[in-house]
Amino acid sequence: MAADIKFMKSALTLAKKGIGNVESNPAVGCVVVKDNKIIGKGWHKKFGGAHAEINALKSCKQSPAGATMYVTLEPCCHFGKTPPCTNAIIKAGIKKVVAAVKDPTRKVAGKGFKILKKAGIEIKTNICKNEAEKLNAPFFKFAKTKKPWVIVKWAQSSDGFLARSDEKRWITNSASRKDVHNLRKKVQAILVGINTVLADDPMLTVRPDNGRQPLRVVLGRASKLPQNCNLFRTAKKSPVYIFKGRNLNNVLARLGKRNIQQLLVEGGQKVITSFLKQKLADEIIIYTSNEKLARNGKIKTSQIMKKTYNRLKINYIDKRLFAKDVRLKGFIK
Ligand SMILES: [Zn+2]
Question: Residue 85 Cα, ligand 1 centroid: separation in angstroms?
Answer without folding.
Answer: 4
